[in-house]
Amino acid sequence: MDTIALGMPTYKERRIPTRSGQQYFIRTFGCQMNEHDTERIAGLLESDGMEPAGSADAADLIILNTCTIRENADQKLYGYLGSLRALKSERPLRIAVGGCMAQKDREVIQDRAGWVDVVFGTHNTHRVLDLLDHADEWGPITEIWEETTSTEAMPSALPTHRETPHSAWVTITIGCNNSCTFCIVPYVRGAEISRRPSDIIREVRNLVAEGVREVTLLGQNVNSYGRDLDLNGRKPLFADLLRQVGQVEGLRRIRFTSPHPKDIRADVAAAMAETPEVCEQLHFPLQSGSDSVLRRMHRGYTGERFLARLEMVRSHMPDLTVSTDIIVGFPGETEADFQDTLDVVAAARFDSAYMFQYSPRPGTPAAEYDDQLSKEVVQERFDRLAALQDQISLEKNEALLGSTLELMSEGPSRKDASRLAGRTRGGKVVHCEASVPPGEELFATITSAAPHHLMGVPAS
Ligand code: SAH
Ligand code: SF4
Ligand code: F3S
């Protein structure tokens, strides 16, 4: 049963907008979860009469939605907060800091940036208007909930302001029950909670009615979706959910992120293959190719197992576009361990990779390991990995030359308005001389390939 915290003021009780005409500006750091939370925060502010400001300079309220996944995210935030202090000394301005770093470092923000009016966490985003009211009447406030206590606090249960009318994120789980030793996410996002399939399907239907053609299902480990639910003695599986979402009339494309390599099974690959709307795209985070590093990371698979799982999905979806995340320089990583990573990367032939230098996060087990590597060693390995992956990305894109692919238009390309930017079902961006409204499909023949983008012409 859901727990609803009684007596807690919520956006639903708000009847009359109190901030009409004021402007807000939100700067988002971090991943899709945060970007989706930002859309919800924007939706709440707009339900209170506010409008988006073109820039921070014009705003009456600035919200920073923070990330703390790596150390440089923290440093960026304090730099930005410093510049806002000067802005606040010139004119009336409210400043609020939310998100993962606020959840983790509430006191530090208060101590280092006393000019911040509101500090809120990842579990009480839906309370932002009430907290702003409090700041107006009583002064600065910090409110962090240790966990999500009601499904109302789930990001997708709130009103939304979406940047892209044709494409939307849909949260299926929040939090994470894994314990990867490098990762701060379980500490700042809490234990995993799944939304009920009926809530998810209702949201997808509503989105489609608003003109959405593509959804991306979001969760830290989508394969574990439903394990915490009990629907009359049954647990819904991610594979079931994919099939159900595929049945929503009018929806053209379904993506999801991320599946965990230790948990993906043939039922998910079969559901992907048998649901035409599910795109041929997989984000499959490797982290390392060394068995000993993977063990110390608590990832639950070996390099060989990872490749076997990838092969299993590819056998169901032969045209799969695959991306990954890799951490270079995990404590104790030897040259031989790193070589194993290069070998798995060469064998997996990812289309693209997000590569990170290991960053110790206070409070996580790996931050305590005493065999941390020097910056120079990590940088040198990172450069070698990036060069290998760039070569593979280029070869994968070159293999598409001359082929005709379905694109969904994202509107005019930002660099050259005479072209449109379109996305393939695999998620690759193609620039193409055509004019097609966002969300509409076209076919393009690929004429040139670079590691990170493609060019094409409309197919006749
Ligand atoms: N739930 C996702 C990952 C979310 S975090 C998954 O399991 O795949 C996104 C990525 O940030 C991770 O995949 C990892 O590659 C990277 N990352 C997380 N913690 C990190 C750290 N301490 N240092 C460097 N990179 C990190
Ligand atoms: Fe972090 Fe691991 Fe959970 Fe991903 S699965 S969010 S890397 S703990
Ligand atoms: Fe995402 Fe950063 Fe939080 S990666 S979950 S916004 S710590």
Describe the protein's topology.
Layout: E1 23-28, H1 32-47, E2 51-52, E3 61-66, H2 71-90, E4 94-99, H3 100-104, H4 106-112, E5 118-120, H5 128-138, E6 141-143, E7 167-171, E8 173-174, H6 185-189, E9 193-194, H7 197-209, E10 214-218, H8 238-246, E11 253-257, H9 266-274, E12 281-283, H10 291-297, H11 303-316, E13 321-328, H12 335-348, E14 352-357, H13 365-368, H14 375-398, E15 404-412, E16 420-424, E17 429-432, E18 441-449, E19 454-458
Parallel strand pairs: 1-2, 1-3, 3-4, 4-5, 5-6, 7-10, 10-11, 12-13, 13-14, 17-19
Antiparallel strand pairs: 8-9, 15-16, 15-18, 16-17, 18-19
Helix pairs in contact: 8-9, 9-11, 11-12, 12-14
Describe the structure.
This protein is of the alpha/beta class and 460 residues long. It contains 14 helices and 19 strands. It folds into four domains: 2-144, Rossmann fold (3-Layer(aba) Sandwich), CATH 3.40.50.280; 164-279, Transcription Regulator spoIIAA (2-Layer Sandwich), CATH 3.30.750; 312-399, Transcription Regulator spoIIAA (2-Layer Sandwich), CATH 3.30.750.200; 404-458, Nucleic acid-binding proteins (OB fold (Dihydrolipoamide Acetyltransferase, E2P), Beta Barrel), CATH 2.40.50. It has a six-stranded parallel beta sheet with strand order 2-1-3-4-5-6, sandwiched between helices. It has a five-stranded mixed barrel with strand order 15-16-17-19-18. Strand 18 and strand 19 form a beta hairpin. Helix 9 (266-274) runs parallel beside helix 11 (303-316) and helix 12 (335-348) runs parallel beside helix 14. The model is unreliable at 1-11 (pLDDT under 50). The structure holds S-adenosyl-L-homocysteine, iron/sulfur cluster (SF4) and FE3-S4 cluster. FE3-S4 cluster (F3S) binds next to helix 1 and helix 6. Residues 30-31, 33-34, 67-69, 100, 184-185, 188-189 line the site of FE3-S4 cluster.
